[in-house]
């Protein structure tokens, strides 16, 4: 079945990989972006420069047809937010903007809306057992609160309008093009920098971009996904020390892991004002993925090792080009 799919944020890390996979599967793809010339080859570009999808219902062009929207664009988590009212800023984009897009898409004939939320909508940490979709959400920051509010608002709208809403909550996403903390970890391993992670035993869920894209496409086309919330991971949750060792191998490097007690790392976080960053590094955060397996029969097509090998190969190629330049 060939679909017309609108991907918001099609020029981002996940958006580019998703658009490419959709095209490969034979679907028609329109990328909704704020900067011209940033979508991949074969993707129809729709440039929308209004903030928070303002007036999108009036700006929707007649030639933009879509059966499904996969909504990736968001105001993402900001470590040092300078907004006078951060929660209001997150709500403006992640809640109000998402609803505007959903309503405009429904008016244009869309039947399904796949909302890419975040693990932060349910919690910052798990306590001994992986988090299930049915657990009581307890977001801890404005970003997480806004993503949870968006989930609820979209599901409510779906029930009222008949739009089939699907919510996907990924944890940390990695793969070719990854940046932020994951990229910093690879850079440290490649440089042989000692890492104080040898005694960290807490496990954290992750998802390789190829696995996330595969799940999003199934959520876009499978009738059984309508109205559901799904957690998506690689199916194996490594400790950060294990992650470093697994990454080091395909990078032809050695992970130098110092056995620093986690209590010392937490103390260092408090003294430096970086407790949140330390907790994300050494705290447990696991997601239960049985729901998507039971409802859709979905399993990740790539193992953790395969995902890390591909990511390491990309990193090495990028750094080789940088040295040659």
UniProtKB/TrEMBL annotation:
Gene3D superfamilies: NAD(P)-binding Rossmann-like Domain. It comes from the Bacteria. CDD domains: UDP_G4E_4_SDR_e (cd05232). InterPro entries: Epimerase_deHydtase, Lipid_A_modif_metabolic_enz, NAD(P)-bd_dom_sf. Coiled coil: none annotated. Residues 5-225 form the NAD-dependent epimerase/dehydratase domain. PANTHER family: BIFUNCTIONAL POLYMYXIN RESISTANCE PROTEIN ARNA, BLL5923 PROTEIN. This is SDR family oxidoreductase. It comes from Paraburkholderia edwinii.
């Amino acid at each position: 079945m060939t679909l017309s799919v609108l991907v918001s944020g099609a020029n981002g890390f996940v958006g580019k990989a998703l658009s490419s996979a959709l095209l490969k599967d034979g679907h028609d793809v329109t990328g909704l972006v704020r900067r011209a010339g940033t979508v991949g080859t074969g993707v129809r570009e729709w440039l929308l420069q209004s903030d928070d999808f303002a007036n999108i219902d009036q700006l929707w062009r007649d030639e933009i047809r879509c059966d499904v929207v996969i909504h990736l664009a968001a105001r993402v988590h900001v470590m040092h937010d300078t907004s006078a009212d951060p929660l209001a800023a997150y709500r403006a984009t992640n809640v109000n903007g998402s609803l505007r897009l959903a309503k405009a898409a429904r008016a244009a004939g869309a039947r399904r809306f796949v909302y890419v939320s975040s693990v932060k909508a349910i919690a910052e940490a798990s306590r001994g057992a992986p988090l299930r979709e049915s657990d009581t959400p307890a977001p801890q920051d404005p970003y997480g609160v806004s993503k949870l509010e968006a989930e609820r608002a979209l599901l409510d709208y779906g029930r009222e309008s008949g739009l089939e809403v699907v919510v996907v909550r990924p944890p940390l996403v990695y793969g070719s093009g990854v940046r932020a903390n994951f990229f910093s970890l690879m850079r440290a391993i490649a440089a042989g920098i000692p890492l104080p992670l040898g005694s960290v035993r807490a496990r954290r869920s992750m998802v390789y971009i190829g696995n996330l894209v595969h799940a999003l496409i199934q959520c876009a086309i499978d009738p059984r996904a309508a109205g559901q919330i799904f957690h998506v991971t690689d199916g194996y949750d490594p400790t950060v020390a294990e992650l470093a060792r697994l990454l080091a191998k395909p990078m032809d490097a050695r992970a130098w892991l110092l056995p620093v007690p986690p209590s010392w790392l937490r103390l260092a976080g408090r003294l430096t004002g970086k407790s949140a960053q330390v907790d994300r590094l050494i705290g447990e955060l696991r997601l239960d993925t049985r729901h998507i397996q039971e409802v859709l029969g979905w399993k990740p097509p790539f193992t953790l090792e395969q995902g890390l090998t591909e990511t390491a190969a990309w990193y090495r190629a990028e750094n080789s080009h940088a040295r040659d330049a």
